[in-house]
Known about the structure:
Residues 88-117 are annotated as: Disordered. With 241 residues, the protein is α+β, with helices and mostly antiparallel strands. It is built from 4 helices and 14 strands.
Amino acid sequence: xxxxxxxxxxxxxxxxxxxxxxxxxxxxxxxxxxxxxxxxxxxxxxxxxxxxxxxxxxxxxxxxxxxxxxxxxxxxxxxxxxxxxxxxxxxxxxxxxxxxxxxxxxxxxxxxxxxxxxxxxxxxxxxxxxxxxxxxxxxxxxxxxxxxxxxxxxxxxxxxxxxxxxxxxxxxxxxxxxxxxxxxxxxxxxxxxxxxxxxxxxxxxxxxxxxxxxxxxxxxxxxxxxxxxxxxxxxxxxxxx
Length: 241
């Protein structure tokens, strides 16, 4: 798999980014061609068109739309990794491929009390996909009876599990301080824990408040691979519920 150095323009931390590999319908592994030397871009506003990139299969020449490579820096910034554009001549790009197997699976946590099977991500194309991905991830962590309320009330709770409520922010703006505090109050009132999933990352104020309230924060990317972005989330991944 191709790897390129990526520097976060916010905290200047260096990362070695490995591009996710997807299966073309012909069966050949396909990956977005990363552009070496080009600076990563901080995602501050999302649009669904910008979140997809054309990728051509080297085996059959087919061109499909796949999630644009992204990297979640520990500082909280969500970075878009530049890719080489695909020439417009040749096969016409079909609609985003359905049922893709996604990137390599997340390995089981070595410190978890009970080793987990590999997590199978769900490619995110809609807000509903984001909620479904968070539900799959919570079940993978070990939460039981994960359900989606039939009606999303003013509490904005998207998922409930035994001992947990979770909110999934699939908007194009970073999750704000108010969302963290509202989730914490809802969890406190129902004597359960809370967790947040966000597609556009978190503001600095939200991250700081979540750390103080011990609210796990997870960043979603379009490959459907949740990533912990604060200490409480790391602990939850390591120890489970």
